[in-house]
Specification:
DNA-binding, single chain, Arc Repressor Mutant, subunit A, transcription regulation, AraC_XylS_family_regulators, 8 helices, 6% strand, 2 strands
């Protein structure tokens, strides 16, 4: 079998893992997706990815958890851990600290301090408050009602003819 075939089978397994990341996997299950024996699959996966299947799964889960922690202020660390497929919060915390060098809570605090997400979330909330929906009886459809402050940055310009593409 050639390298391209091995890579294609491993890629099929990667897609399967990513689409089911919140579930638990067995080596037999992953090997069956790639259509290899579990021993052969483990060796090939390690050769292609430079990490074991379960190191890969753990890394992906941790990266997804880190993203969820920053992007969703209303989720708690435990909720994120379970959503990302960790069965125990202590295992999650230990793996998180090993991967990122600090606890999930400390990492989250540091990322929120560096990030401008809180500013953009605040701006989004302000925009949501200023927008409202109304029913237009003339067109018989829903319309957005907004104050004109939101449209201040819109500018219409006439440009000379030019080739774009």
């Amino acid at each position: 079998m050639e390298v391209a075939e091995y890579t294609a089978r491993v890629n099929k397994t990667l897609d399967y893992i990513e689409s089911n990341l919140d579930q638990q996997f067995s080596l037999d299950e992953l090997a069956a997706v790639a259509n290899f024996s579990k021993y052969h699959f483990h060796r090939i996966f390690m050769g292609v990815m430079n990490e074991t299947p379960f190191q890969f799964i753990t890394r992906l889960r941790l990266q997804r958890a880190a993203t969820l922690l920053v992007m969703n202020h209303n989720l708690r660390v435990g909720e994120v851990a379970f959503q990302c497929g960790f069965t125990d919060i202590s295992i999650f915390s230990r793996n998180f600290k090993q991967h990122f060098g600090q606890s999930p809570t400390a990492w989250l605090y540091q990322m929120r301090q560096k990030s401008n997400l809180s500013q953009s979330n605040s701006n989004l909330e302000k925009v949501k408050e200023e927008l409202s929906v109304y029913f237009c009886s003339y067109t018989k459809s829903l319309k957005w009602n907004t104050n004109m402050d939101l449209n201040k940055s819109i500018e219409i310009k006439e440009l000379p003819n030019m080739t774009v593409a």
